[in-house]
Amino acid sequence: MRGRRSDRPALEEALAAARVHQAPLVVAKVDRLTRSVAFLSKLLEAGVDVRFADLPSIEGPTGRFMLQQMASVAELEAGLISSRTKAALAAAKARGKRLGDHRGIKLSEQSQVAGRTAQADRAKQRATDLAPILSRLSSEGITSASAMARALTERGIPTARGGTKWTALQVLRVTARAEV
Hints:
Layout: H1 9-21, E1 25-27, H2 30-33, H3 37-44, E2 50-52, H4 60-94, H5 109-139, H6 145-154, H7 168-178
Parallel strand pairs: 1-2
Helix pairs in contact: 5-7, 6-7
């Protein structure tokens, strides 16, 4: 998980599980969870006891204050890193350095074949990972590709490219690769 993102479905699942089981949510480091004081405040008001391995005692008002100060420092650090990165990229661009991807560069035939093979392997692995979920959907009576696409979208399972909405065609391609 990235500390700067606020759309965190896995975190929402963990918070829900902690509330259901009335158990604390344990996080390794404050700055890996969030670099935003606003997000941290929202999290602390979620009705879950959150414990941090890098700050063992955050009990009471003093602990909450210390936690918010750590998040403030992490937020400042993220902003400074962003500023330095933007300045370095601007300086590199001013020196004539080409930034971004390298489209237009002719790859050797061997590199192209290796790239296609790697991409096919990743697609096969993704399909294999999704096969149990698709089988479960099928056993629940969800059998059409469009119904499976809706179910995958509703369950918050990202597409191969990180999208949030599945299509029937994507499901058909995955099922063909996974031999479901």
